[in-house]
């Protein structure tokens, strides 16, 4: 099994995370196995999760709030359309 330096691993992780280069491309260009790249990606993601748990929690809460707000707005919009349709059909 070939050994890679920490610097090589971090460089590849940055390509996957920051530059959004897919694993298939890196398998070809870097000559590193898909399993190794998947493991490195998982390691990087777990490291981020451990490093920023409060930030992630706040982002999750903000996303949940926005999803609820959007859902409420959609419901209100549907109610308005339904009421308009009902009003218009009564006049016919």
Explain what the structure shows.
This is Transposase. This protein has two domains: 51 residues; 39 residues. The N and C termini lie far apart (78 Å). The protein is elongated and about 75 Å long. α1 crosses α3. The model has no long low-confidence stretch (mean pLDDT 88). It contains four helices and no strands. The protein has 92 residues and is mainly alpha-helical.
- In total, how many beta strands? 0
What's the overall geometry?
elongated
Main sheet properties: none
> How would you spell out the order of helices and strands?
HHHH
Helix content: over 70%
Q: Return the average pLDDT rounded to an integer.
A: 88
User: Count of helices?
Assistant: 4
Structural class: mainly alpha
Low-confidence stretches: none
Counted up, domains total 2
- Gyration radius over CA: 24 Å
Strand content: under 5%
List the helices and strands and how they pair.
Elements: H1 6-17, H2 23-30, H3 34-51, H4 53-90
Helix pairs in contact: 1-3
Protein name: Transposase
Organism: Xenorhabdus miraniensis
């Amino acid at each position: 099994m070939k050994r890679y330096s920490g610097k090589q691993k971090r460089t590849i992780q940055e390509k996957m995370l920051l530059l959004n280069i897919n694993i298939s491309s890196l398998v070809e260009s870097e000559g590193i196995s898909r399993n190794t790249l998947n493991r490195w990606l998982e390691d990087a993601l777990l490291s981020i999760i451990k490093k920023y748990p409060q930030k992630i929690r706040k982002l999750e809460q903000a996303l949940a709030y926005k999803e609820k707000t959007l859902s409420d707005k959609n419901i209100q919009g549907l109610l308005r359309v339904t009421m308009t349709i009902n009003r218009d059909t009564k006049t016919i």
